[in-house]
Fold each of these.
Amino acid sequence: MAGTEKSLKARAVDLLSRREYSRLELKRRLAPFADSEAEIDALLDELAAKHWQSDSRFAEQFASSRGHKYGSRRLAQEMRERGIDRDTIQSALAQQDDLATARAVWQRKFGRPPADQQERLKQMRFLASRGFGMDIIQRVLRGEPDDE
């Protein structure tokens, strides 16, 4: 290695100093610079032991930063793609209020009930693409109150 080349650990710390990364994301980012997969795994284990990298902290941050825009289904899918396990995802999404989020997103985008079936389908597709379940979508479009 050249003297000016950054060490693998320096690259990892540099990335983590900017934002949280899941273990899988960090592994993918460091792979081009590592001599072996074992080298990356050892470094990631060290970073996790020092609490510099944490999947649960990543999941909490991810849910709070994107939770005002997307439903639990979409957030969970995106976290699974980033290598977060099911229990960590459930824990991170425990405080997510999909109904309130869906209402707020719907209000910003449309602001009024659908005038016809075509508009209703458009609004339903929009909310579904944001990761809200059909039960939540129907409650939003019917204008149901929070307490049933």
Amino acid sequence: MKLAAVDIGSNAIRMQITKVTFYDGSYNFKKVEYLRFPLRLGLDVFHTQKISDLNRRKFIKLMKAFKILIDLYEVDDYMACATSAMRESMNGKDIVQEVKEEIGLKINIIDGNREAELINKSLLRLIDERAYLHIDVGGGSTELNIYQNKVKTASKSFQIGSVRALEDKVQEPVWQSMRKFIEKNVSPKARIISIGTGGNISKIFELSGPKTTRKYLDSAKIEETLHKLESFSFEERVNKLNLNEDRADVIIPAGKIYLRAMEMANSQKILVPDLGLKDGMMQVLFERRKTL
């Protein structure tokens, strides 16, 4: 069985093709293709509320390339989901319809709750009876989910993201709304553990020190890593730290979003698994196909 997931974000667009193998009563997911293209749709939308003609043309070309790969790999099922930038753009639905008619690729524009639900599909195996705050920072939005005793007790999406923050498009009332949400749903006595998903927290984890068996970052280590990043110019982050250009400018504002959410919840450490929206889509596709 081969499955494909396309994650159309505000800062970049990703596609993963996975082969599911079955052996001796169990199954295994093996990644056979992964592509990430730096098309920053959010930059258009957060300034003009629509995707520009230039980026529309690039987006359609990219979807053609993805559809060719999906066909070449003879994928059994796929899911393509567009998040904050596409759902907030005035011409997002028209572009999605154009892709469907011209290419035959169906794209779902999902809201923040559905986005969080899909991401959580990949996190359930990490959750135990303790209290958790799941933080997923994208280019245009941040999804928060709270778990207690292995049950999700609250979830909300906020218009706070790395590209928005970079462009100074996050309003203070939105931060206040996030704080109220956390204070309402997290007990002051709870020793809550954060879980961070998203490319920026994964890269911060990677840059934070030598790779060991540790899976957590404490807030002090995040601050230390961000301070190090701030000491480099954009060009130095790209050339000395080997960051992609579309990562080098947003990684600091993204890191500060994780820190601020952790501070609101009085959370001292964050678990950083290598999981995200695409992994949740894969799980949904697998569950759908195995019942056929």
